[in-house]
Design brief:
About 40% of the residues lie in helices and about 15% in strands. The protein is built from two helices and two strands. The radius of gyration is 12 Å and the shape is globular.
């Protein structure tokens, strides 16, 4: 069980990549996640909302 406020290393890596995106791509990316990826995206987006455009979370069925 993770402690509140702790995000997985994948989310940290995503933040670094989004921060380093080339200047020729001025628009914020649309990101899609489900299950663990969705959880990581929502956690990261709550901490760094300026990194993302639309966020799509799909059900894990």
């Amino acid at each position: 069980m993770r402690s509140p406020g702790v995000i997985p290393p994948e989310a940290v890596a995503e933040a670094i990549l989004r921060h380093r995106r080339p200047a020729r791509r001025p628009r914020k990316p649309c990101v899609i996640g489900n299950c663990q990826a969705g959880w990581a995206l929502m956690s990261l987006a709550s901490l760094r909302p300026e990194l993302f455009g639309p966020i799509v979370i799909t059900p894990n069925e």
